[in-house]
Amino acid sequence: MFAYVVKRLLAGVLVLFLVSMSIFLLFWYGPNEPARVMCDTKTSNRCNAERLDRFTEELGYNNAWYAEYGDYVKGVFVGRDITVAAQTTRCDAPCFGLSYKNGKPVWEDMKDRLPATFSVAIGGATLYLLLGVPLGVAAARRRGTVQDKALVSSFLFLSSVPYYLFALLTWLFFSLKWEVPLIGDTGYVPLTESPTAWFGGLALAWICLGIFGCTQYTRYARGAMVEALSEDYIRTAKAKGLPTRTVVYRHGLRAALVPIVTIFGIDFGTLLAGTIFTERIFDIEGIGLWSLRAVMQRDLPIVSATALFSAVVLIMANLIVDLVYSILDPRVRLS
Amino acid sequence: MSSTEPFLVVEDLTVRFPTEDGLVTAVQDLSYSVEKGKTLGIVGESGSGKSVSSMAVLGLHDARTARITGSIRVDGQEVVGLNEAGLRKLRGRQIAMIFQDALAALHPFYKIGGQLAEAYQVHHPKATKREARRKAVEMLDRVGIPQPDRRVDDFPHQFSGGMRQRAMIAMGLINDPSLLIADEPTTALDVTVQAQILDLLQDLQSEFNSAVIIITHDLGVIAEMADDVLVMYAGRGVEYGPGKEILTRPQMPYTWGLLSSVPDVTGDTDSKLIPIPGNPPSLLNPPTGCAFHPRCVHSDKVEGDLCATTMPAFEQGNSGVRHLKRCHLRDPEVIFEREVLPVIAPELLEEK
């Protein structure tokens, strides 16, 4: 087991190394003028060819890529000093460079936005799991009945609605029409600052993600459960005289959890990497919204940092899924 | 009532499944009985209704998908129409079932010991975990699992095929059931292990004095185990009587067909393997008359088209003893001796 974890971690590190290098090279050889943004900012939009050359030189774009990449990696682990326009900024580890737009170390901005994204993702995922799995189990137990068909078809309809429209409707109904208490102005307020404002600001985003995501999870859970309940060992469990509840949950759901966990791990990783739509619609200053803005402003260090962050999160999610999988299924554990 | 009646009595059992294509009649007008300490063998091809009828004894069919009529009495108690709570008391306690393919029938995520203990605890709610575990170890020991106190913590996939089937049997017998239904208990096993499992079942049966139903398509298993034999075809009983009688003096062409399809390792090579032509009939749209007539090579010996038009009654033949058959043939004994025996077992005739 331990050797397995170590092996997977090492593989993860290797993948991260390759991903970070690819991102770096992509931006290095990409069809753009990376120094243009910083040149514009520092010279109050009076950037000319000569100044652009100077910034290109200062940012290191005239050096060999591997030398710069080495500096970049070193910065990530131990930090480094970056000198631009005769001004030296200390960039502490993990250093992903300085924002071309505001000149601040990328990590400083990033660490302020992580809690917002994590709050949105964890709340939304909790809600869609809590709604989706029990609904899916209930539907599987009533497979073929009118209730089951009604649920499946209405959820299919719901999941065909474009997400932004769905989000808009959520906002219109929950916030404006019904004026549900506790739902405040959308936006992110740190939990430590004001728990009620934190909750109120994120509630709509959670509801939106929760309901939209639960349509998928109801389908997954229903499918997994239908399959599990048709297994021979379910018949054995019934033949033992076990109560229906034990048969369905202890024997059925336990087996159905494996595929659900697998999908959830990857899904949740994607959520953590940035819920761009949700953050944009509900005006939550998280990683997603931040990276979206960075792309539009061509703020390369931020774009590459968020890309790298996504990779880290997805690799971690995969690793955790594999570990959970081996806990759930003893056949994986021992082979 | 229960003192005079056999332990299990099945009367006119009919099991139907409504499907989108129509009503599937999986079992029709099936009657049999088993006494304590006796073994009934149910033989037939796949889809003949063997498993469906036995699952009805445990009430395992979903009430929403199966329509069951007739009567099943276990120790005098009616099972058909019994509520879920009543069924749960019977299942695993009075009637236990052993399934084929123990790898699929055991839960892959739980330890063998846990699954056995669970079966014990559900009917002994006062038993502690430790007692249930001790009982599980004891049962594993009883069915011949080596080092049971260690193997009790193994998962099913760590057991060999034979050991899994033994564990399955241990689980079935953990509450001393009065009736054990073994649904093709040896199908997934290799022959040497098959013999061990059958021996084990026989030993345990004499020890517990339980009634046993063994479902199989293997006539060798029947010859080894069964006191009584019920041959099923297309959901109905077609021949029913004492095992020896059925195997030596069968009166129904389908049973002859089954006997002809058994390879004989001890016999000489003159004996031939003759498969039954055709396929089992559709239960959605069964043939008119005798369900077996489209595949029957002897139907020309029956006057007119009786076989194709009239379902033969399930009645006593000429042999005198309790031996029911469902066939229009007038003199099946003569045809069996003259036409069937010489082909499938010529050495038997030479002895005569």
From TrEMBL, chain A:
It is found in: Cell membrane. The chain crosses the membrane at residues 9-29, 116-138, 150-176, 196-215, 255-282, 302-328. SUPFAM superfamilies: MetI-like (SSF161098). InterPro entries: BPD_transp_1_N, MetI-like, MetI-like_sf. Residues 114-325 form the ABC transmembrane type-1 domain. Its main location: membrane. Gene3D superfamilies: MetI-like. Keywords: Cell membrane, Membrane, Transmembrane, Transmembrane helix, Transport. It is a multi-pass membrane protein. Belongs to the binding-protein-dependent transport system permease family. This is ABC transporter permease. It comes from Nocardioides cremeus.
TrEMBL record, chain B:
It is a peripheral membrane protein. Residues 8-259 form the ABC transporter domain. The keyword NAD does not apply. Signal peptide: none annotated. GO terms for molecular function: ATP binding. SMART domains: AAA. The keyword Glycoprotein does not apply. SUPFAM superfamilies: P-loop containing nucleoside triphosphate hydrolases. It is found in: Cell membrane. Keywords: ATP-binding, Cell membrane, Membrane, Nucleotide-binding, Transport. PANTHER family: DIPEPTIDE TRANSPORT ATP-BINDING PROTEIN DPPD, OLIGOPEPTIDE TRANSPORT ATP-BINDING PROTEIN APPD. Belongs to the ABC transporter superfamily. This is ABC transporter ATP-binding protein.
